[in-house]
């Protein structure tokens, strides 16, 4: 491939893969079964130049490849307020489709059919997708980012290093969550715990003890996304729940987590204390079908919402919603697909106080959008939108 | 001083040493200025400097942000890391492929380098040589 046998586009992609393998001291490459590409989010002219170069050189992906969010909602284009960003974002998304990627435009590819299985080598980008694939599915991906993701898709190969290898997947530190007790049955516990773990461990591999066995994939999604944004967590194990969790971990250092710790995290993640709200944004990472249904149940009856309420989800999930979508939109929920409210110009630049149920959104939005964020559960977000000010249960 | 080359190139500039890790995505604007409010050197300009930092941190979109700065001529002149990091040299590699602009990225124990004066980085695939001079070369 390096010599150009499969074309100049493949040769370029292979130079990137081999260069990365050298830097990470990988002894060889490994064949992958799928890729998830994040390079379709616009970061400047270089994003377009790279995608167009690959298209011009005739490159095509050779494994099933899903696309992460772009800078544009192609189904509701008027939602994006910056026309230049909208044009460039649309052009970039089209270029990746031309390379043979599937236009999924979601940060939660694990909610789609045909997701990878246990032990499969894959090349995924987008930190929340990486941590979910490794931890919950037991597939194997290292942390890949812009440019490398699509080069892996084009060559069908990734460096055999990092979390592709068995030895690198063992837990390194235990988080004893048993003191949290029933608090782990509340949805807000998961983004808070994830943020705490990410902030404490950096890129280590946490082993969680004391998580209820009936924990949902949506809760694990929220935990992983927060851990991957507050730190560099790309794999966690939940004893009794996730497929590679250890049975023996007595030799690992232990950190104890109690309710006071998570209360402090909640205060730290909320950059304003309360009062008037400008908007609410939920669905980061993209809301699952079950989460959309739950929101519809919460908003179906009751007073109207006084501030704009955004729900980000995948276009495939939106298509399944049918009557649920009607209920959401009738209640005033603004459904966003293909992108997310914290990576493009959807919220008004005049809004300063925004509520979310996402630890990841609360972590990134203040820097990206110059807003203050407050974290609450989904019912608290709905109650607050109806009141026009922050309403917290506890 | 001899280092390991992560991406080849030659550069000369005044050094700036970061006292805390920095993510280019969300941490540096298009003019090469540190805008991460939590960073102790927020406000510093990295353009055309020899950037000394432990390692990259945070988002994998850093490769895009660095490649875009190289294209726009607002990137550092060279980057010297104390630990290998795949994300930063990837940005340099893509800029070299697309624009034929070469920003050297090397790993070296830079603690011993003086921070006044000028540094010259000459990185070829087998090794990188870093030299110091008191005055503008």
From TrEMBL, chain B:
Extract the SUPFAM superfamilies matched here: LeuD/IlvD-like (SSF52016)
Question: Pfam families of this UniProt entry?
Answer: AcnX_swivel_put
The alphabetical list of record keywords is:
Lyase
Gene Ontology MF: a single term? lyase activity
- Give the matching InterPro entries: PMDh-S-like_dom
Q: Which domain of life is it from?
A: Bacteria
Record-annotated membrane-spanning stretches: none
Domain Phosphomevalonate dehydratase small subunit-like residues, every copy: 22-105
What PANTHER family would the database entry show?
Answer: DUF521 DOMAIN PROTEIN (AFU_ORTHOLOGUE AFUA_6G00490)
What is the name of this protein? Putative aconitase subunit 2
């Amino acid at each position: 491939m390096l010599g150009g046998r499969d074309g100049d586009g493949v040769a370029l992609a292979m130079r990137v893969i081999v260069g990365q393998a050298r830097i990470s001291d990988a002894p060889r490459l490994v064949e992958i079964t799928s890729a998830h590409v994040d390079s379709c989010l616009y970061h400047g002219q270089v994003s377009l130049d790279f995608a167009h170069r690959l298209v011009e050189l005739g490159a095509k992906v050779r494994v099933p490849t899903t696309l992460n969010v772009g800078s544009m909602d192609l189904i509701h284009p008027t939602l994006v307020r910056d026309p230049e960003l909208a044009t460039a974002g649309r052009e970039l998304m089209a270029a990746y489709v031309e390379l043979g990627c599937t236009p999924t435009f979601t940060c939660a590819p694990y909610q789609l059919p045909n997701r990878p299985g246990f032990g499969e080598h894959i090349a995924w980008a987008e930190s929340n997708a990486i941590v979910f694939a490794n931890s919950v599915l037991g597939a194997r991906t290292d942390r890949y980012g812009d440019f490398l993701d699509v080069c892996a898709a084009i060559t069908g190969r990734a460096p055999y290093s990092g979390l592709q290898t068995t030895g690198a997947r063992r837990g390194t530190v235990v988080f004893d969550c048993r003191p949290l007790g029933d608090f782990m049955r509340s949805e807000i516990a998961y983004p808070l715990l994830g943020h705490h773990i990410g902030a404490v461990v950096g890129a280590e591999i946490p082993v969680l003890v004391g998580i209820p066995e009936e924990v949902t994939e949506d809760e694990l999604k929220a935990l992983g996304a927060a851990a991957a944004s507050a730190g560099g967590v790309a794999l966690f194990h939940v004893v009794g729940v996730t497929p590679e969790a250890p049975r023996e971990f007595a030799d690992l250092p232990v950190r104890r987590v109690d309710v006071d710790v998570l209360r402090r995290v909640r205060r730290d993640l909320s950059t304003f204390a309360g009062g008037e709200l400008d908007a609410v944004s939920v669905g980061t990472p993209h809301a699952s079908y079950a989460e959309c249904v739950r929101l519809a149940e919460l908003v179906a009856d009751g007073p109207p919402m006084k501030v704009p309420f955004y729900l980000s989800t995948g276009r495939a999930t939106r298509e399944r919603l049918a009557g649920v979508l009607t209920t959401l939109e009738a209640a005033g929920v603004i459904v966003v697909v293909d992108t997310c409210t914290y990576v493009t110009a959807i919220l008004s630049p005049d809004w300063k106080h925004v509520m979310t149920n996402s630890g990841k959104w609360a972590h990134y939005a203040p820097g990206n959008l110059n807003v203050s964020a407050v974290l609450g559960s989904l019912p608290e977000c709905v109650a607050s939108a109806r009141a026009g000010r922050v309403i917290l249960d506890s | 001083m001899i280092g390991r080359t992560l991406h080849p190139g030659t550069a000369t500039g005044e050094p700036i040493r970061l006292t805390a890790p920095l993510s280019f995505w969300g941490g540096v604007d298009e003019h090469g200025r540190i805008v991460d409010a939590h960073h102790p050197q927020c406000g510093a300009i990295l353009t055309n400097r020899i950037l000394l930092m432990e390692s990259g941190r945070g988002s994998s979109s850093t490769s895009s942000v660095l490649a875009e700065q190289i294209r726009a001529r607002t990137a550092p002149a060279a980057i010297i890391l104390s630990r290998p990091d795949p994300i930063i040299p990837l940005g340099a590699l893509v800029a070299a492929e697309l624009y034929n602009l070469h920003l050297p990225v090397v790993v070296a124990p830079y603690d011993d380098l003086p921070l006044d004066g000028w540094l010259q980085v000459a990185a070829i695939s087998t090794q990188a040589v870093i030299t110091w001079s008191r005055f503008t070369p």
